[in-house]
Amino acid sequence: MNAIKPLLGIGVSVGVLAGVWTFASVELTWITWVAFVAWACFFAAGGGTAGLAKGLAANLAGVFWGWVISQGLDSVSGSTLALALMVTVVGFVLCVEAALPLLSFIPGGFAGTAVFFGTGFDLGGVLVAVVAGALLGIVSEKLGAVLQSAIDGRSPAPTTPTPTPAT
User: Fold this and answer.
1) Cα-Cα-Cα-Cα dihedral sign, residues 104, 100, 134, 150
2) Per-residue model confidence as pLDDT tens digits over 20-43
3) Distance of alpha carbon 27 from alpha carbon 21, whole angstroms
4) Dmax over Cα atoms in the chain, in whole Å?
5) Which among 51, 130, 140, 161 counts the fewest CB atoms within 10 Å?
6) What pLDDT shows up at residue 154?
7) Does pTM surpass 0.85?
8) Are 32 and 22 in contact, with CB atoms under 8 Å apart?
9) How confident is the model at residue 76 (pLDDT cuts 50, 70, 90)?
10) Which residue, among 151, 147, 145, 123, has the nearest Cα to 60 in the 3D structure?
11) CA-CA distance, 44 to 31, in Å (whole number)?
């Protein structure tokens, strides 16, 4: 139980939010699974505001490069060789763009391209779900910390400094 206790807050938070997201996204006919990929990227990129920025930026860059490939496919009549060459170039780009700190989470770029392809090139649906997943990541992390503080019987750490009264 000692190994599990530190994970209870995040576990409850993620579990509840995953259920809420699944219900809401299905009812709204949004792409449920794509948000889970972006949510995972948030945690894999380190969480916090840095993980939010890096995960989301890399996912969106990957979606963009997937969209570029889809536009290229229209102009070459769906040739398998052309697709392979475009994927080769984009794979290279997804790696070298990581020289930019905001795009340094390479797996997020590949995930963004993959979800775009996996939805049959549904750009609008993917963009909504990727942003939702990133936001679910930050909310689940913050809510998990609050819950974990309650489980541990301590006050959560303040997120903003309390101003000191003037004397």
Assistant:
1) positive
2) 999 999 999 999 999 999 999 999
3) 10
4) 74
5) 161
6) 79
7) yes
8) yes
9) confident
10) 123
11) 21
- Please tell me the distance from the alpha carbon of residue 105 to that of residue 22, in angstroms, as a whole number: 26
**102 burial via Cβ count (<10 Å: 0-12, 13-18, 19+):** middle
Q: Determine the distance from the C-alpha atom of residue 78 to the mean position of all C-alpha atoms in its chain, rounded to a whole number.
A: 29
For 130, half-sphere exposure in the C-beta direction (CA atoms, 13 angstrom radius) is 28
Considering only residues 73 and 74, tell me which one the structure prediction assigns the higher pLDDT: 73
The residue assigned the tokens 């990227």 is 41
Q: Supply 56's token pair.
A: 């989301």
Q: Which amino acid is at 165?
A: P
Structure tokens at 21: 């997201």
Question: Would you state the structure tokens that stand for residue 31, as one six-digit string?
Answer: 């792409």
Which helix (H) or strand (E) segment holds residue 149: the answer is: helix 123-152
Residue pair 105/45 in contact by the 8 Å Cβ criterion: yes
CA distance 47 to 42: 5
DSSP symbol at 9: H
Q: Is the pLDDT of residue 92 over 90?
A: yes
The predicted-structure confidence for 47-60, as pLDDT tens digits, reads as follows 999 999 999 999 99
